[in-house]
Amino acid sequence: MVTGYLDHLTVERGLAANTIASYRRDLRRYTEYLTAAGVRGLREVAGSDVSGFLSALREGGRVGDVDHPPLSATSAARAVVAVRGLHRFALLDGLVPDDVAHEVRPPTPARRLPKAVPVESVVALIEAAGSVEGPRGLRDRALLEVLYGTGARISEAVGLAVDDLDRGQAAVRLAGKGGKERVVPVGSYALRAVEDYLVRARPALAAGARGGVRGGVLFLNARGGPLSRQSAWSILRSAAERAGLDPATVSPHTLRHSFATHLLDGGADVRVVQELLGHASVTTTQVYTLVTVDRLREVYATSHPRALT
């Protein structure tokens, strides 16, 4: 049953591989919990079993031979969503008479504001990345310019092909979650950095590939293969250290957050930022407006003559 549900999510819903892997882990834990409780199939599951599973997620404990640490509200909510989806799928397929998970609500995660860094810190990061001698420095600078200049997710950036970048139109085609594509403008700084990389660095990196570079991948590693997400993280951490920033506070997603926040600070409409980020709902994007309100409040408090106490 679980396999059929995951296949449905992969083929018909087009969910990302990482999401499917998370759902698979969550549902494996759910089935282990049901087995330990003496439940032998979905037809025997009661609403109390589903709510009990949620409590077990939040409290942690031993299920079978495995000790599970308590999950955060965010992780527990994802697991409950997976379980609710499984029961809904079973109902629609006629495998169970009722959806017993329908009334079990996921915990509400604490609302966390996105972390952005000031423009000058972004510039320092990019400069530090480009300070490495040889092809790597040109590649690293181009990667960070693309991340900050387009708001791309790290998976979208390392998945780029050379042909995804339209230098004539100053735009890039990004493949987002669920295989949804969007076209995002690219600024002159990122275009110049990518051009330098393509002319002066990528050929040298591609020369190390056995059997040639496959698929025209834009960002290559030292062996001529596709740059991995882990390597991109390492590039950013190293750049943060050289720039005098705390690597623990900087991630590829930080550049995406900074991209959105700086656009809104500059007067961009939230729906435009939604399109650029590839968010399905404007509600997801609106969390960034809280950041800019805080910034406005700070400027007001330090600048307005009647705001000072």
From TrEMBL:
<feature type="active site">
    <location>
        <position position="177"/>
    </location>
</feature>
<dbReference type="GO" id="GO:0003677">
    <property type="term" value="F:DNA binding"/>
</dbReference>
<keyword id="KW-0131">Cell cycle</keyword>
<keyword id="KW-0233">DNA recombination</keyword>
<dbReference type="InterPro" id="IPR044068">
    <property type="entry name" value="CB"/>
</dbReference>
<keyword id="KW-0132">Cell division</keyword>
<comment type="similarity">
    <text>Belongs to the 'phage' integrase family. XerD subfamily.</text>
</comment>
<dbReference type="GO" id="GO:0006313">
    <property type="term" value="P:DNA transposition"/>
</dbReference>
<dbReference type="Pfam" id="PF02899">
    <property type="entry name" value="Phage_int_SAM_1"/>
</dbReference>
<dbReference type="InterPro" id="IPR011010">
    <property type="entry name" value="DNA_brk_join_enz"/>
</dbReference>
<feature type="active site">
    <location>
        <position position="153"/>
    </location>
</feature>
<dbReference type="InterPro" id="IPR002104">
    <property type="entry name" value="Integrase_catalytic"/>
</dbReference>
<keyword id="KW-0229">DNA integration</keyword>
<keyword id="KW-0238">DNA-binding</keyword>
<dbReference type="InterPro" id="IPR013762">
    <property type="entry name" value="Integrase-like_cat_sf"/>
</dbReference>
<feature type="active site">
    <location>
        <position position="253"/>
    </location>
</feature>
<comment type="subunit">
    <text>Forms a cyclic heterotetrameric complex composed of two molecules of XerC and two molecules of XerD.</text>
</comment>
<dbReference type="InterPro" id="IPR004107">
    <property type="entry name" value="Integrase_SAM-like_N"/>
</dbReference>
<feature type="domain" description="Tyr recombinase">
    <location>
        <begin position="112"/>
        <end position="301"/>
    </location>
</feature>
<keyword id="KW-0963">Cytoplasm</keyword>
<comment type="function">
    <text>Site-specific tyrosine recombinase, which acts by catalyzing the cutting and rejoining of the recombining DNA molecules. The XerC-XerD complex is essential to convert dimers of the bacterial chromosome into monomers to permit their segregation at cell division. It also contributes to the segregational stability of plasmids.</text>
</comment>
<protein>
    <recommendedName>
        <fullName>Tyrosine recombinase XerD</fullName>
    </recommendedName>
</protein>
<dbReference type="GO" id="GO:0007059">
    <property type="term" value="P:chromosome segregation"/>
</dbReference>
<dbReference type="InterPro" id="IPR050090">
    <property type="entry name" value="Tyrosine_recombinase_XerCD"/>
</dbReference>
<dbReference type="Pfam" id="PF00589">
    <property type="entry name" value="Phage_integrase"/>
</dbReference>
<feature type="domain" description="Core-binding (CB)">
    <location>
        <begin position="1"/>
        <end position="91"/>
    </location>
</feature>
<feature type="active site">
    <location>
        <position position="279"/>
    </location>
</feature>
<dbReference type="InterPro" id="IPR011932">
    <property type="entry name" value="Recomb_XerD"/>
</dbReference>
<dbReference type="InterPro" id="IPR010998">
    <property type="entry name" value="Integrase_recombinase_N"/>
</dbReference>
<dbReference type="GO" id="GO:0051301">
    <property type="term" value="P:cell division"/>
</dbReference>
<feature type="active site">
    <location>
        <position position="256"/>
    </location>
</feature>
<dbReference type="GO" id="GO:0009037">
    <property type="term" value="F:tyrosine-based site-specific recombinase activity"/>
</dbReference>
<dbReference type="InterPro" id="IPR023009">
    <property type="entry name" value="Tyrosine_recombinase_XerC/XerD"/>
</dbReference>
<keyword id="KW-0159">Chromosome partition</keyword>
<dbReference type="GO" id="GO:0005737">
    <property type="term" value="C:cytoplasm"/>
</dbReference>
<feature type="active site" description="O-(3'-phospho-DNA)-tyrosine intermediate">
    <location>
        <position position="288"/>
    </location>
</feature>
